[in-house]
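Comment thread on ticket #2218

A.B. wrote:
> Attaching the input chain for the structure job we discussed in standup.
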Amino acid sequence: MTQYIYIASPMRLPVGSFGERPVSFEQPNVFKDELDFTHLYFENNYDSDSKQRYTYSSHFSYKYQVTAYANRIPLRNDIKGTAAEKKCLGILYSYLEEAIQHSGVIEYFTSWNSEEDLALSKKRHVQWIDIEKPYDLVLDDREFLVITLWDINAYGITDFQE
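C.D. wrote:
> Ran it. Output below, let me know if you need it in another format.
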């Protein structure tokens, strides 16, 4: 089975490939080594044939969603510390940082393919300021984070359930 990461936001999220470093613009499919090819590809939840959005998981509460194949992003019990793992976590960290700055809140989730709607193993709320380094984004399977730019309690939000 394949592990995926999922992100949801009230604002549109960027799609496409992030992190590839080809040898030149003239040779976009040629890479110096495997690490230069290592990347994350984010795909959105819009079906261009039906012209409709669908949800990747019933756990999400926001309309705009993306997913990425997470073969280089470990689960919490499988951290290896490889260069590719560090690079992908760095890409994910930068991606989420940009998204949270744009929308103020995002939902971040990981699961095995076809298990996206199973019960969550854990649901937490964190502020972006508490995510100090890319390895803070390593989750357990079916762990769900609500990440806010600000403290939701300071704004009287009471409908968040952990």
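A.B. wrote:
> Thanks. Noting for the ticket: The longest strand covers residues 105-112.
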